[in-house]
């Protein structure tokens, strides 16, 4: 092996080690920033080493792509709010999958011309087929996920008649075209035809899934984009791309499994059950609420808080939309200054992505040891005087304890806030959450509704509490 190639492989190994250390750092909020920087340095090292390869296109094209891609990334980063991070992740997944599919297609076409590889092997064509198939599914599936989260298309599932048969047929066609590619690698038609059919399959797989399950879908698509990148690495015989893609794929699958466990559901159930298809009708909603909803003012809630010894705050998507974390921090500090114990109840899928609430609250410098996960916080609600629910809905819905399979969130672990002495729900209206069902908590005997924007209500509560 030439010294230059050996040195490049050594640097690729160093980049892979940095990826692993960076991924490890992302497992805890205190080390997440450092982990992200370490992983970024690993990627920078991998890029520099790759640019040393003599088989690349001209540096003018590389610089142009770098500038355009960097500009798009900077604009997205600055213009996207924290509530839009799931959409950003979906876009990145789609870009990654699409780039892998297009790149392996280009590499395959060059190989057909007899360029850069001596022989088209079964390993090569199998990797091309895998990367093209998975990358195309990730591209269009992520586009649909983005559209649903951005509300460009309906968040509710679009249930096409016979969709399961259609999906199986599309998958079999893709496998047939992939087999054709492996058996007879003499033309590019099987590859591009497979990419086209796989793109349609990506749409068909995601469009029947409702908003309640979209975080799981995005995590799964992230794993797909990683696998596509790993296949791309096998095509190019690039070890760092194989390692990076495998890490992303494995991490994505682990996260998907953890999220499914947090929702007490199987991945098959998420993909095929069509969660969100049951939307509460006005009659059903009225039957649950039936004039039992009690509205309160900030002054009334402040009096309740002033007599409390322990308060738990349960944040949700409504807090993220209103960017209420800073106002909630002020309320927390005021309560603690009066000797009241304050904790935060964190549901693993509150918001739209795992860790969504943790990031927002950390942004407001709320101590990490105050963020208590579901398993630890649930046993303490019976000893809690007041729970303040800011914009959460499905993750505090008691209907999840029902075994009726027609209820979309049946069996999903929830925050047992209804077991507290008093519950105050801060919400704009009685509208349902992503699952599309009413919430009996709103009409419970120990519940009060504080209608309004989460940020404004947190500020009003702080003002009212100062006056008590």
Key structural traits:
alpha/beta, 6 strands, Rossmann fold, 3 domains, 17 helices, elongated, 468 residues
Topology:
Elements: H1 3-25, H2 29-51, H3 59-79, H4 85-112, H5 122-149, H6 163-183, H7 189-206, H8 214-236, H9 239-262, H10 267-272, H11 282-289, H12 298-306, E1 310-315, H13 317-322, H14 325-337, E2 341-346, H15 356-363, E3 371-373, H16 374-377, E4 386-390, E5 422-427, E6 447-451, H17 454-467
Parallel strand pairs: 1-2, 1-4, 2-3, 4-5, 5-6
Describe the structure.
It is a single chain. By secondary structure, this protein is of the alpha/beta class. The protein folds into three domains: 1-79; 82-272, no CATH class; 282-467, Rossmann fold (3-Layer(aba) Sandwich). Helix content is 59%, strand content 7%. It is built from 17 helices and six strands. The protein has helices at 3-25, 29-51, 59-79, 85-112, 122-149, 163-183, 189-206, 214-236, 239-262, 267-272, 282-289, 298-306, 317-322, 325-337, 356-363, 374-377, 454-467; strands at 310-315, 341-346, 371-373, 386-390, 422-427, 447-451. It has a six-stranded parallel sheet. It is elongated, with a radius of gyration of 25 Å. Residues 275-283 have low confidence and may be disordered.
């Amino acid at each position: 092996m030439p010294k230059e190639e050996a040195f490049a492989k050594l640097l690729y190994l160093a980049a892979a080690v940095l990826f692993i250390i960076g991924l490890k750092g992302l497992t805890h909020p205190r080390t997440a920033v450092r982990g992200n920087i370490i992983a970024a340095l690993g990627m920078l090292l991998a890029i520099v080493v790759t640019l040393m390869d003599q088989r690349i296109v001209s540096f003018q094209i590389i610089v142009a792509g770098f500038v355009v891609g960097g500009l798009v990334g900077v604009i997205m980063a600055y213009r996207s709010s924290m509530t839009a991070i799931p959409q950003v992740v979906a876009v990145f997944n789609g870009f990654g999958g699409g780039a892998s599919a297009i790149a392996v297609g280009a590499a395959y076409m060059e190989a057909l011309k007899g360029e850069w590889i001596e022989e088209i092997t079964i390993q090569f064509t199998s990797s091309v087929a895998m990367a093209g198939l998975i990358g195309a599914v990730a591209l269009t599936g992520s586009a649909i996920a983005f559209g649903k989260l951005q509300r460009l298309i309906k968040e509710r599932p679009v249930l096409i008649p016979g969709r399961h048969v259609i999906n199986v047929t599309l998958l079999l066609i893709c496998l047939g075209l992939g087999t054709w590619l492996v058996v007879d690698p003499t033309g590019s038609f099987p590859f591009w035809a497979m990419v086209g059919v796989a793109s349609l399959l990506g749409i068909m797989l995601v469009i029947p899934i409702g908003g309640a399950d979209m975080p799981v879908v995005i995590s799964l698509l992230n794993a797909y984009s990683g696998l596509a990148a790993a296949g791309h690495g096998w095509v190019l015989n690039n070890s760092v791309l194989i390692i990076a893609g495998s890490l992303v794929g494995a991490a994505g699958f682990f996260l998907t499994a953890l999220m499914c466990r947090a929702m007490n559901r199987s991945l098959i159930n998420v993909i095929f059950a069509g969660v969100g298809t049951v939307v509460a009708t006005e009659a059903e909603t009225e039957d649950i609420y039936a004039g039992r909803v009690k509205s309160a003012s900030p002054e009334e809630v402040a009096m309740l808080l002033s007599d409390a010894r322990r308060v738990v705050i349960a944040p949700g998507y409504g807090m993220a939309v209103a960017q209420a974390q800073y106002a909630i921090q002020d309320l927390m500090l005021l309560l603690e200054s009066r000797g009241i114990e304050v904790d935060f109840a964190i549901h693993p899928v509150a918001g739209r992505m795992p860790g969504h609430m943790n990031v927002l609250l950390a942004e407001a410098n709320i101590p990490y040891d105050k963020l208590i996960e579901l398993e630890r916080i649930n046993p303490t609600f019976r000893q809690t005087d007041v729970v303040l629910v800011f914009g959460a809905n499905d993750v505090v819905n008691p209907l999840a304890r029902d075994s009726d399979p027609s209820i979309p969130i049946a069996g999903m672990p929830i925050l047992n806030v209804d077991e507290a002495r008093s519950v105050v729900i801060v919400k704009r209206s009685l509208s349902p959450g992503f699952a599309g069902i009413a919430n009996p908590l709103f009409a419970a005997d120990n519940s009060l509704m504080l209608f309004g924007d989460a940020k404004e209500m947190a500020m009003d509560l702080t003002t009212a509490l100062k006056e008590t």
